[in-house]
Amino acid sequence: MQIYPEKYDKLVLSTSERSFLRTTERAFAEDELAYYVVQINPRKRDAGQGKAELFNMIIVPEGIMLLRFFDVDIPLVASTTIKALANPLVYSVLENDIRSKLEESNYLVRESGNLRFALNISFVFPNIDFSQMEPELTEPEKIFCFKHVLFKNDIHLLRKEGKKILLERLSLADEIEEEIVNNIFQRLCPEITIPRKFILDDHTTIPIKEAALSQMDRAVQSYRLDNWQIDIVNRINKGNQLILACAGSGKSVLLISKCFKLASLNPCENFLITCYNRNLNNYYQWAISQAGFIDKNVKCTTFLGLCKQLLESNGISLPTRYPNQQNGYYDTLFEKANNALATGQIKERFYGIFIDEVQIFKPEWYRFCFNLLKSKNDNDHYFVIAGDKSQDIKNNIKHGKAPWQGGGSGYPEYR
Questions:
Q1: Contact, 158 vs 180, CB < 8 A?
Q2: Helix/strand/coil (H, E, C) string of the chain?
């Protein structure tokens, strides 16, 4: 069984979740196709009190299982939770949301448009036996538990009897093959994949469709990040980070994947991705749409586009634009946005900001972005900048002239 991320020991998992993962890994140890993905948020939802609605996902030939853990040990709390989950309206909305996301990929559906594979969503109560719940449950709720709840006694059976305890929850359907696994990942945990349209030349443009995926988008193929990249994406460290690498090394992939991961873990917070190049921005917007964040909590725009949007959204007039004075117009646009931010007229703030192509940014642009953070405290924000590791940037760093240098004590610097 392949586990993503491989270095899951760095994640915040309960003792019960870690134990269940090891049990499942042993149960599927001999299977050629078996994946276990830890802590995904396929609906990009808040589960209450700012916490993400996290699932663990199992993919095997027999189907897809999503498991949500409830680490409670009080029977009354467990029974109340189960009664809420067993409400037909609550569960049907959850299942329909997940099923609809999968059905947006042409590779995962029949000609009718329906999902080809079995899907089961279960809720795990590793500290509660079914016998403790049974007297409190109605007959429909008991039936729901047999299909969609794993209790402590079920986990004991999984250890004793193996994978059949999980597989019996999957209905008969088409078998999942290796070549479509990436498409499942792309729909439910896009942070570990990269859509094929990333392969571009400097003159290619990408049309962005906000409302829905086009037929071409529904047929998009995805590549999977390698194990090292997935581990990097799941390495969650707050504060400031600089990524310098050669052009074409994949730093933009890591940047957007890390943003997706953090946005899914923090669905009540806002995140910004910005860059200089319009074509790269177009790709980012398309990838955000593919990943299901377009109407959620990830904003993406070029830096100058950001200045324009911030002014407009706060009711501030744009500077007058004159023919043949494009550079002067953009300088004035930035100055107006910068002054508006300094005087408190711009209200938008972000929990995490990701800057690509930072080597092209002016130092004042870099400082402007940092000032858009919700909190300047290193323990309460994510500020990630990425750029090309060229000879010019090496010289600029050496002489203290890189965009992130010389801003003063209030701004992060990197050497």
A1: no
A2: CEEECCCHHHCCCCHHHHHHHHHHHHHCCCCCCCEEEEEECCCCCEEECCEECCEEEEEECCEEEEEEECCCCCHHHHHHHHHHHHCHHHHHHHHHHHHHHHCCCHHHECCCCCECCCEEEEEEECCCCHHHHHHHCCHHHHHHHHHHEEEHHHHHHHHHHCCHHHHCCCCCCCCCCHHHHHHHHHHHCHHHEEEHHHCCCCCCCCCCCCCCCCHHHHCCCEEECCHHHHHHHCCCCCEEEEEEECCCCCHHHHHHHHHHHHHHHCCCCCEEEEECCHHHHHHHHHHHHHHCCCCCCEEEEEHHHHHHHHHHHCCCCCCCCCCCCHHHHHHHHHHHHHHHHHCCCCCCCECEEEECCHHHCCHHHHHHHHCCECCCCHHHCEEEEEEECCHHHHHHHHCCCCCCCCCCCCCCCCC
Q: Is the separation of the CB atoms in 166 and 27 below 8 Å?
A: yes
Q: Tell me the mean pLDDT per 10 residues along the chain, length 415.
A: 90 92 95 96 89 96 97 94 94 96 92 94 96 93 96 96 96 95 94 67 43 47 86 89 79 89 93 92 85 80 95 93 76 95 96 92 93 94 86 59 70 72
Residue count (the chain): 415
| Per-residue tokens: 231 | 């581990």
The burial class, CB within 10 Å (0-12 / 13-18 / 19+), for 408 is exposed
Per-residue confidence (pLDDT) for residue 235, from 0 to 100: 87
Which pLDDT value is given to residue 286? 84
Q: Rounded to whole angstroms, how far apart are CA atoms 148 and 185?
A: 22
Q: Are 413 and 407 in contact (CB under 8 A)?
A: yes
Are 241 and 381 contacting, i.e. CB atoms less than 8 angstroms apart?
no
236 Cβ contact list (under 8 Å, min separation 6): 11, 261, 262, 265
**Cα(18)–Cα(35) distance, rounded to whole angstroms?**
15
pLDDT of residue 209: 43
Other beta carbons within 10 angstroms of residue 379's beta carbon come to 7
CA distance 305 to 99: 35
Tell me what pLDDT residue 415 has. Answer: 60
pTM to 2 decimal places: 0.85
Rounded to whole angstroms, the Cα distance separating 4 from 192 reads 9
Strands 239-245 and 382-388: parallel
